[in-house]
Automatic annotation (TrEMBL):
One GO biological process term: metal ion transport
Native source species: Carassius auratus (Goldfish)
Pfam families named in the record: LSDAT_euk, TRPM2
Keywords (A to Z) from UniProt: Ion channel, Ion transport, Membrane, Receptor, Transmembrane, Transmembrane helix, Transport
Subcellular location: Membrane
Membrane topology: Multi-pass membrane protein
Statement: the UniProt record of this protein carries the keyword Cytoplasm: no
Source species taxonomy: Eukaryota, Metazoa, Chordata, Craniata, Vertebrata
Domain called TRPM SLOG: residue spans: 98-363
Protein name as annotated: Transient receptor potential cation channel subfamily M member 6 isoform X3
Chain ranges of the TRPM-like domain: 423-541, 595-652
InterPro entries: TRPM (IPR050927), TRPM-like (IPR057366), TRPM_SLOG (IPR041491)
GO CC annotations, alphabetized: apical plasma membrane
Length: 676
């Protein structure tokens, strides 16, 4: 099914089909009354002539006196007629396109996420930042505005987050758009700002009608109109249709369901944690207080970050949060001052102010989920860190779980300052899975952080884990399988598992000459065979073929293993039978210990340049490792070009080899490289 037909078959629009006058006066008119057709509006906001269906224009056979308009009873559903792309005109000098679709207010959240991932080719977010606040224009001080703008964009782009707003070109949504314009990346793939907007309030929404079309859109609205225009810096719009015109509110429930559905998705295929969700409050009217209360009272509570100094609802939340820091109740004199302030802030009477104060006090029952950010404070952390730490607090995850979330975000700074802190107790080996995930996910900053916090690579890196790293698929990892096929001169089955012996053959194939890899030596093959077939050596089988290698931690009596490159520096003189017979019989003291050198070769062969540069700085014999890396990169570049893998890959591999030459200062060795 094509993209166009799938969207039409999946999403619907709603139109009012029964005229129900909003004014219930005693005017008794005939079916074609010109006054009613021109002046009296239906509860949906339309005139008689703007209705469709059998009740169009039949006011004389209208509703009973007690009938109330409802979406389910008075609207009809039909395939959506508005979706495609918007080209915003005059809003910015930067290219500003956005995807949009008109859809019914009761659309299942599962279909919305499918639209985003399948049709709009997005990736699951690692964080959802739901921004709430004032819908009318308001002023922010330059310092508060900068703190909010930079914090929001850095938090979103550094973690791969989605930002959700109302999508209109006024109020807090406009501030979000301005933040994207000033501080956001020019890479459209990183601009994931969703506007969830009522279809009926959009200025000139009929101009958007069309199936899979490109529509030019003017973001500047008519100042005399009560309708709203869309903000030009949002990347995607869900235009929520409940059959009404000029009325807001239908988007609220759909937004809640979408946020909840995304929240229960896995943050990364390797990690069990779910996508965190955080609410950010900037300014806002009385309705925002109820929004905050709804978030913190959910069965899966959502943390709230309030930007103090932005005005109205945000400042009232900050005030009550501080006043109830010691005691949960307000003194009578303070309560009276707060009531007066609520009346002045929202321009309401005393009874309504008292009701709003009750909502505020209910919010404070969940005060641990509410964080106040004062951008005027000199001692406070950066706004992006505040957003992320608030998100972590709301997950209520264990330290290991929080560490996994920061790993998915690739924010080692947050992990260092908030999780891997002095006094935090970690079980022995509890960080080893995190290290494995960091290597697989190519998180160099986390590998560095874990090593700084005492991770012992000789304990962590077993043969089992090294082979697991070689068998993970990421990006262009299929290139390694192709080289193995060339080295073995055979076609690998789809489920083939790469072994270290295969890697040894690849190294010898790429470097050539008299080079001999440790992984192909008889001593390594014998030890490798014993690990895979312990029963043949008279040892009981365990649940895992690599369990012996895991249990074989190095002891003080065990002599340090020669490095991978030191062994291969003298291939002709090395004695194959250098292993003592008693060592051959024992699987508890393996002759081979994986080191930084083995991990470094993995990073080179898996085409992970940044990780390889980091690992090159650890271990011994940096010059020898740099020379080997140069040769491997050059040979892989030739292989990529000859195998039609693309000129870009070949050029990148060649560039990596040159960086190794410069790093090691071995430019004079260029004549020894494989010729292209």
């Amino acid at each position: 099914m094509s993209r166009r037909s799938w969207i039409q078959a999946t999403f619907s629009k709603r139109e009012c089909v029964k005229f129900l006058p909003a004014s219930r006066d005693h005017h008794r008119c005939y079916p074609v009354c010109q006054v009613c057709q021109s002046l009296v509006r239906c509860c949906c906001g339309r005139l008689i002539a703007e209705h469709v269906g059998p009740y169009s224009g039949l006011l004389g056979h209208g509703p009973g006196p007690d009938e109330e308009w409802s979406v389910l009873q008075h609207t009809s559903v039909s395939p959506t007629d508005a979706f495609g792309s918007l080209d915003f005109q005059g809003s910015t000098k930067r290219t500003s396109h956005a995807k949009y679709v008109r859809l019914s207010c009761d659309t299942p959240a599962e279909l919305l996420l499918q639209l985003m991932l399948r049709e709009w080719h997005m990736e699951i977010p690692k964080l959802v930042i739901s921004v709430h606040g004032g819908t009318e224009n308001f002023n922010l001080s330059p310092r508060v505005c900068q703190a909010f703008s930079t914090g929001l964009i850095i938090a979103a782009e550094s973690t791969g987050a989605w930002i959700l707003t109302d999508g209109i070109n006024t109020g807090v949504s406009k501030y979000v758009g301005d933040a994207v314009k000033v501080y956001g990346s020019h890479d459209l793939r990183k601009r994931n700002v969703f506007g969830i907007t009522p279809w009926g309030i959009i200025e000139n929404n009929t101009d958007l009608i069309g199936r899979d079309v490109l529509r030019h859109y003017q973001a500047l609205g008519n100042p005399l109109s009560k309708r709203a225009s869309l903000n030009g810096m949002h990347s995607h719009f869900l235009l929520v249709d409940d059959g009404t015109m000029g009325k807001s509110g239908c988007q609220i429930d759909l937004r809640k369901r979408l946020e909840r559905h995304i929240h229960f998705q896995k943050i990364h295929p390797r990690l069990p944690q779910h996508v965190p969700l955080v609410c950010v409050v900037v300014e806002g009217g009385p309705a925002i207080l109820s929004v905050v209360l709804e978030y913190v009272r959910r069965s899966s509570p959502v943390p709230v970050l309030v930007f103090e100094g932005t005005g109205r609802a945000a400042d009232l939340l900050a005030l009550i949060h501080k006043q109830t820091a010691v005691e949960s109740k307000l003194d009578s004199d303070i309560k009276e001052d707060v009531l007066l302030r609520i009346q002045e802030t929202f321009v309401v009477d005393r009874q309504e102010a008292s009701e709003l104060l009750s909502i505020l006090m209910e919010c404070m029952e969940y005060r641990e989920l509410i964080t106040i950010y004062d951008s005027e404070s000199e001692d406070l952390q950066e706004a992006d860190v505040a957003i992320l730490t608030t998100s972590l607090r709301g997950t209520r995850a264990s330290p290991e779980g929080q560490l996994n979330i920061t790993l998915a975000w690739d924010r080692a700074d947050v992990a260092k300052d908030n999780i891997l802190v002095y006094g935090q107790q970690w079980q022995v080996g509890s960080l080893e899975q995190t290290m494995l995930d960091a290597l697989v996910m190519d998180r160099v900053s986390f590998v560095k952080l874990l090593i700084e916090n005492g991770m012992t690579m000789r304990r962590f890196l077993t043969i089992s884990r090294l082979e697991q790293l070689y068998n993970t698929q990421k990006g262009s990892d299929h290139f390694l399988r192709h080289i193995i096929e060339d080295a073995k001169q055979t076609r690998l089955p789809a489920v083939y598992r790469i072994s270290l012996i295969d890697i040894g053959m690849v190294i010898e194939y790429l470097i050539g000459g008299a080079y001999r890899s440790t992984y192909t030596r008889k001593s390594f093959r014998a030890m490798y065979s014993r690990i895979h077939n312990p029963a043949k050596e008279g040892v009981k089988e365990t649940s895992s073929p690599f369990s012996k290698a895991r249990k074989a931690a190095p002891t003080s009596e065990t002599p340090p293993s020669r490095s991978h490159f030191h062994r291969t520096a003298q291939p002709c003189r090395h004695q194959e039978g250098a292993i003592a017979p008693q060592d051959v019989k024992s699987t508890l003291s393996p002759e081979f210990l994986c080191t930084f050198n083995d991990l470094f070769v993995w990073a080179v062969l898996k085409h992970r340049q940044e990780m390889a540069m980091f690992l090159w700085q650890h271990g011994e014999q940096a010059m020898a490792r740099a020379v080997v890396a140069c040769k491997l990169y050059r040979a892989m570049a030739v292989e990529a070009r000859e195998s039609n893998m693309g000129d870009s890959m070949a050029e990148e591999l060649k560039k990596n080899s040159l960086s190794r030459v410069r790093t090691a200062g071995c430019g004079s060795l260029g004549s020894g490289f494989p010729r292209e």
